[in-house]
């Protein structure tokens, strides 16, 4: 069974270009300030979420194991 993933976005550096949402369409969404926030991390595979995090131009995305708290990215 796939492990549960948790994501967080650093709003001090997110520039709101929505690249993460283009890749992981379910895990992220834009808030009213046009910054990415966690939506449904169970809605995309870990592989897709990692790809989204790796493609954030400002490295604003942190990916964690939701159960253990282990940091998976960066
Ligand atoms: S890809 Fe990075 S900078 Fe762009 S919206 Fe997502 S978190 Fe923000």
For the biggest sheet, the summary is: 3 strands, antiparallel
SSE sequence, one letter per element? EHEEHEE
Helix/strand/pairing class, anyone? alpha+beta
In the CATH hierarchy, the third-tier topology is known as Alpha-Beta Plaits
**Record field, number of beta strands:** 5
- Counted up, domains total 1
Q: What do you see in this structure?
A:
The structure is a single chain. 20% of the residues lie in helices and 26% in strands. With 74 residues, the chain is an alpha+beta fold. The protein has one domain: Alpha-Beta Plaits (2-Layer Sandwich), CATH 3.30.70. The mean pLDDT is 97. The site of iron/sulfur cluster (SF4) has 14 residues, from helix 1.
Protein traits:
74 residues, alpha+beta, Alpha-Beta Plaits, 3-stranded antiparallel beta sheet, two-stranded antiparallel ribbon, 2 helices, globular, binds iron/sulfur cluster
List the helices and strands and how they pair.
Blueprint: E1 5-9, H1 19-23, E2 28-30, E3 36-38, H2 46-55, E4 61-65, E5 71-73
Antiparallel strand pairs: 1-4, 2-3, 4-5
The structure holds iron/sulfur cluster (SF4).
Iron/sulfur cluster is lined by residues 9, 14-20, 36, 56-58, 60-61.
Q: Could you give a quick summary of the protein structure above?
A:
The chain has 74 residues and is an alpha+beta fold. The chain has two helices and five strands. The protein has a single domain, classed as Alpha-Beta Plaits (2-Layer Sandwich), CATH 3.30.70.
């Amino acid at each position: 069974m796939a492990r549960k993933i948790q994501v967080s976005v650093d709003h001090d550096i997110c520039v709101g270009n929505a690249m993460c949402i283009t890749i992981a369409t379910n895990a992220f969404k834009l808030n009213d300030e046009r910054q990415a926030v966690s939506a449904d991390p169970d809605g995309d595979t870990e592989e897709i979420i990692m790809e989204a995090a790796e493609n954030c131009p400002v490295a604003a995305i942190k990916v964690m194991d939701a159960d253990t708290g282990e940091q998976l990215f960066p």
